[in-house]
Design brief:
alpha/beta; 4-stranded antiparallel beta sheet
């Protein structure tokens, strides 16, 4: 998407970069910077990518002091913001850090996808002798909980259980697009599977260009 919509891009910022899995690959093609609010995840990223600039900042309020040709937010990270007002804050912060002609690309989980997972059986994955079980439940309209349990093998038939609940907010495509168009002149929603983008899509990507002048 970056190559198609901003083929001259040289500098890139990934917000909510986590442990740097994507950032490391992007660094093969761009001068990259990453930021995340989790010190624990950044510590892992710094061990993996000691040569890259990594910043401990929140994507709703970040200030980097420079602008970029591309800014990305991947792996439905923005869904973890549980107030849509915070999504809008992200859009404005991104606008403030994009060069002229820069592109902002992010993806979301849709309500349709999350509801299909709710209606289906738990997902079970085996990693060596460790087991992961994931179920998704609907807390209220638009808000879904990912319930993750990891059974870590210790010895013989003994396992240690780790559990965590991760909450996501699913926002209708039209509402996301309307808010983006306040900030950007050109907004496209894309379904990576090639079908018409909708709230039933498995995942949606948004590509935004042409930042508007905003009043403070």
């Amino acid at each position: 998407l970056i190559e198609h919509h901003q083929p001259r891009a040289k500098t890139l910022l990934e917000i909510a970069c986590g442990t740097g899995g994507l950032l490391g690959r992007l660094s093969e093609s761009y001068d990259v910077t990453g930021l995340d609010r989790s010190r624990a995840m950044l510590a892992i990223a710094k061990k993996r990518l000691p040569h890259l600039q990594l910043l401990h900042q929140d994507m709703t309020s970040f200030r980097v002091g420079r602008r970029f040709d591309a800014i990305v937010c991947a792996f439905d990270s923005i869904n973890h913001l549980l107030r849509f007002a915070d999504w809008r804050r992200v859009f404005r912060r991104v606008k403030a850090h994009l060069n002229d002609g820069g592109v902002f690309i992010f993806d979301v989980n849709t309500s349709g996808k999350l509801q299909r997972i709710v209606d289906g059986p738990p997902w079970v994955g085996q990693f060596g002798r460790d087991t992961v079980v994931i179920t998704v439940t609907k807390r209220r309209p638009g808000v879904f909980d990912w319930n993750v349990k990891i059974f870590e093998h210790q010895q013989q038939d003994r396992y240690r259980r780790h559990s965590e609940t991760i909450t996501e907010l699913a926002v209708p495509r039209k509402r996301i697009t309307a808010s983006l168009k306040i900030v950007f002149n050109n907004v496209k929603a894309l379904d990576p599977e090639g079908t018409h983008p909708s709230d039933r899509s498995q995942r949606l990507y948004f590509v935004c260009r042409g930042a508007r002048s905003l009043k403070s």
